[in-house]
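User: Second chain of the day. Same drill as before.
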Amino acid sequence: MFKSRPLSSVLLSSAAALMLTIGGSAQAEGFDLKNMSEAERAAFGDAVRGYLLENPGVIFEAAALYEEQQAAQQERADETLVADNAEALYNDGYSFVDGNPDGDVTIVEFLDYRCGYCRKAHPEVAELIEKDGNIRLIVKEFPILGEASMISARFAIATQIVGGDEAYKAVHEALIAMKGNPGKSPLVRLAGTLGLDGDAIWAETESEEVTRRIAETRALGQKMGINGTPSFAFGDQMVRGYAPLPAMKEIVAELRK
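Assistant: Same format as last time:
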């Protein structure tokens, strides 16, 4: 929704679509492009090329229309994905819930602690939740950027299992800001600074329950076509990628209409 394709790619796709449209119109007028001679086909192509050179704005009009159609198609597909996976998205029974648990709008965030855009989005999501006061936020641990991501996610989930939601939130905040590489010593030490039993949490990181939760969330992400972080579900909508605070506020306002 907030990612754009390279202009060259859009223009090429739009030009192709425009040629198909022109071709379809020609056939509707009685021209059979498939049965044209080489000379007739060349003449037709030259005529189209000449028109586009004289009226280049047509390409940009086609590009804008093509982008609108693609966005609408993606939005419809995403609404279906959200509806088909609503139970796993909103009621898996273990994902951390922040904000107002009875909020009128629910946001689901798939995140990776080592993701730069997740870190950029974090304070903006927090501000949205805090200032709005009526949003429920569900956090999905979605480690996709390598071993460090997996270690961080396992430690966060293990913290929730051992210490509960308040402990999870404290570790979650620390991990999203952590600059060094995670490992047993730094993570146990980090937990200690938060008044938590780091050794007990570390011992839980390789448990079957932690592994199950990560596997289920990964499977959900695959079903949803999520291949990057952050990714969000806002109500019945998907936002694939970072969205600035004003854009998130706009989406929430639209959902409440």
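The chain has two domains: 7-84, 94-256.

User: Great, on to the next one.
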